[in-house]
Amino acid sequence: MAVSDPIFDGLVALVTGGASGIGASVVRMLSDAGATVAVLDVAPAETGPAALTLRCDVADEDQVEQAVAHVHEDLGGVDLAVLNAGVGGFGAIVDLPAAEWDRVVGVNLRGTFLCLRAVARRMVAQGRGGAIVAVTSISGFLVDRMMAHYSVSKAGAAELVRVAARELGPFGIRVNAVAPGTTDTPLFATTERLPGYRDRVAERAALGGVGTADAVAQAVVAVLGLEWVTGQVLPADGGVSLWSPIDPAESLER
Questions:
Q1: How far is it, in rounded angstroms, from Cα 172 to Cα 195?
Q2: If DSSP codes are grouped into helix, strand and coil, which group holds residue 107?
Q3: Alpha-carbon radius of gyration of the chain
Q4: What is the rounded average pLDDT of the residues 205-221?
Q5: 3-class state of residue 244 by DSSP
Q6: CA 150 to chain CA mean position, Å
Q7: What is the DSSP secondary-structure string of 139-183?
Q8: 182: nearest Cα among 144, 138, 228, 242
Q9: Which tens digit of pLDDT belongs to each residue from 150-205?
């Protein structure tokens, strides 16, 4: 399936964190596929294909409710939603301030919940089904030191997706997640201070290299269009999560 096919003609899509990175690629691909797209982001979106751009902090309940209502009223509903807004963080558990924990978990987990709840309420009321994809991370099922708050927030979002899929299935609403690995986005750029990190990750990816925003967005759009799939988490990581520290074949390759 080419994402440029008009498979979403007549549908309204909402994308959080759509101003840059993976979100911006999703916005473009959904528009190319015929959807009318609304962007929710704390940062101003560059001039692009979105029909509506709203400033919204996804961790703020009132802002989320008002923004989703605005999209519904202005564009005639919400049929597709990509819950992509997220932040990163770095710090050992013993040194991590509670405020930093709250910041990361607030956006990545609370924000995903608030947006999912607001969108799901609209979809249920509309009575025409829908599809929701949350962007989580392979860090939600791997163990990454210095990233406890980030990993926990993404693990929680993945479980939220599974529970939501079970609850919303009777309404014809599919809920899935795409879990990127290392992806060349503004968030990944913060790892430049870690010597050799990018090269090490690139070597461990089964497909080699670091992913692009477009590659992950392609997976997101594909999952949105799968009519008989719900409650699943699809890694879009080039196979980096397949690497094992106890792989015996590594000894034979030396």
A1: 47
A2: helix
A3: 18
A4: 95
A5: coil
A6: 13
A7: GGTS--TTBHHHHHHHHHHHHHHHHHHHHHGGGTEEEEEEEE-SE
A8: 138
A9: 999 999 999 999 999 999 999 999 999 999 998 887 766 666 777 877 788 888 89
pLDDT tens digits, one per residue of 56-111: 999 999 999 999 999 999 999 999 999 999 999 999 999 999 999 999 999 999 99
Residue 4, helix vs strand vs coil: coil
Q: Kindly report whether the global pTM for this prediction surpasses the value 0.90.
A: yes
CB 237 within 8 A of CB 198: no
Candidates 31, 23, 24, 36; CA nearest to 5 is 31
Classified as helix, coil or strand, 138 is helix
Q: At what angle do helices 148-168 and 98-105 cross, to 10 degrees?
A: 30
Amino acid symbol at 247: D
Residue 90 CB contacts under 8 Å (≥ 6 apart), including other chains = 146, 147, 190
DSSP string, 28-95: HHHHHTT-EEEEEESSPPPS-S-SEEEE--TT-HHHHHHHHHHHHHHHT---EEEE-------B-GGG
- The one-letter code for the residue type at 125 is A
Active site residues: 150, 154
Check: CB of residue 30 under 8 Å from CB of residue 13.
yes
Domain boundaries 12-238, CATH class = alpha beta
Q: What string of DSSP letters covers 195-239?
A: TTHHHHHHHHSTT-S-EEHHHHHHHHHHHHT-TT--S-EEEESTT
Q: What is the DSSP letter of 16?
A: E
